[in-house]
Amino acid sequence: MKIKNILEKACAKNNLTKDEIKVLLEAEDEDKDLLFKTADRVRKEHVGDEVFLRGLIEFSSYCKNDCFYCGLRRSNNQAQRYRMQEDEIVEVAKRAYQMGYHTVVLQSGEDMFYTKDRMCSIIKKIKENVDVAITLSIGERSYDEYKAFKDAGADRFLMRFETSNEKLYRQYHPGMSFEKRIECLKWFKNLGYELGTGFLIGLPGQTIDDLAQDIILVKELDADMIGIGPFIPHPQTPLKDAKEGSVDLTLKSIAILRLLIPDANIPATTALGTLDPLGRQKGLMCGANIVMPNVNNLKYKLKYELYPGKICINEDATKCRGCIESIIVSLGRKVGQGKGQSRHYKRAA
Ligand code: SAM
Ligand code: SF4
Ligand code: FES
Known about the structure:
Shape: globular
Helix content: 40-55%
Radius of gyration: 19 Å
Distance between the termini: 37 Å
Number of strands: 9
Strand content: 5-15%
Number of helices: 15
Bound molecules: S-adenosylmethionine, iron/sulfur cluster, FE2/S2 (inorganic) cluster
Number of domains: 1
CATH class: Alpha Beta
Largest sheet: 6 strands, parallel
Structural class: alpha/beta
């Protein structure tokens, strides 16, 4: 199969077979360059040169789950745990708005301390104080809770399915179920959230075939935003000796998904920037159009350790804001104005 033909088909039909996706994932040299250039062109045509910023507020490092790869897993008794007070979260959201963020992402471990009522109150208070879109990334809850959060003003939900290989999912997520994960993702669509999902690259045992299936699943779920990041081993987890995920495969996955869902929002993730000092720039040049700088206080940034070596951990939010803008401008792009709602979502509405 010729790369050129596959790319032409992807652009014309926004669809590819698993075998065609695998050929793209395995592309090297000029074939890989052509994939990246095509994705960059499609990104420009469909979502333009604006790069939208999302202010990430990691408000709790407690988690009831035990995902094998994550530093926040409940069995990690060396993890530093914190919970932010409601007023503190609202203050950070206000500061983010003043710095020019029009979306805040409220992220945490699965922490049931934040009950339905507490979460609704936080969402409402942020909305009363600042004109921002709110993305939730807080894990699995009941339909009723998700509905209440939406009614309270949450706009988007981000939850990766992590891997579409059910056997691997079971292995790395004790006590959790793949079916439940997918059910939640369908609920988000149903409830009118902008749906964000995606997967990890490089979990031990994951094959190219699995990655191609992950890409197909994102397409089938019809995601409005797509978060893909390389796995980074954390020393206090069962996967501490595993190899880190490939930057190259992450970039290729971003590029392929840009071709399959051309108007989606796709972040160049922090994990990508952690494994490669130019990772975020590379992501933005092969299909990505979003970055999610952390806007939290330094004392919390250090404690939310999903994986070691996370970038920006010692930089305060103002420094990151300036830094990220200069990165965007250096690529000939501009910081997006407004909330940066997914065009894919808008089109479907
Ligand atoms: N607890 C919520 C959940 O799991 O959806 C939200 C927070 S969780 C920390 C956010 C994402 O971090 C996960 O979806 C996972 O893909 C990513 N993550 C966790 N550990 C990681 C690691 N060691 N390397 C790279 N990404 C990791
Ligand atoms: Fe908890 Fe999310 Fe980490 Fe899993 S990935 S242990 S659910 S914070
Ligand atoms: Fe944080 Fe560059 S974005 S230091």
